[in-house]
Amino acid sequence: MKAHFILYVADQQKAAEFYSAVLDLRPTLDVPGMTEFTLGEDAVLGLMPVAGAERLLRLSMSETSGPRAELYLVVGSAAEYHSRAIAAGAREISPLGDRDWGHTAAYSIDADGNVLAFAEIT
């Protein structure tokens, strides 16, 4: 099984540039309507413009004031990923710290209201 996680974004190009900088990856697919980053053998992060998602799903996605989704990635250096997210324009929600579920994690939020969590297993 391969999992695709799709975030709905206001500006596909801006979001692609942000995630490319944060993940330190180049997109494996970048066409009008979808940008994808391969996160591993079994996981892909997709970025789809809200307008395209509304057409595809035939429903309206009103702007929300709170977070839309959370992308929780277990990585080798949570501090490095978190720093890249902040440098690329994310806003810090919670600094790197030990969590009671056995991870050290840091949280930020991107311009589209998606929460980014970068974690290491402690």
Detailed description of the structure:
The longest helix is centred in the N-terminal third of the chain and has 12 residues, at 12-23. Strands 1-4-3-2 form a four-stranded mixed β-sheet. A four-stranded mixed β-sheet has the order 5-8-7-6. The chain is built from three helices and eight strands; from the N terminus they run E-H-E-E-E-H-E-H-E-E-E. The protein has helices at 12-23, 50-57, 78-87, and strands at residues 3-9, 29-31, 34-40, 43-49, 69-74, 91-98, 103-109, 114-121. With 122 residues, the chain is of the alpha/beta class.
Helices and strands in order:
Blueprint: E1 3-9, H1 12-23, E2 29-31, E3 34-40, E4 43-49, H2 50-57, E5 69-74, H3 78-87, E6 91-98, E7 103-109, E8 114-121
Parallel strand pairs: 1-4, 5-8
Antiparallel strand pairs: 2-3, 3-4, 6-7, 7-8
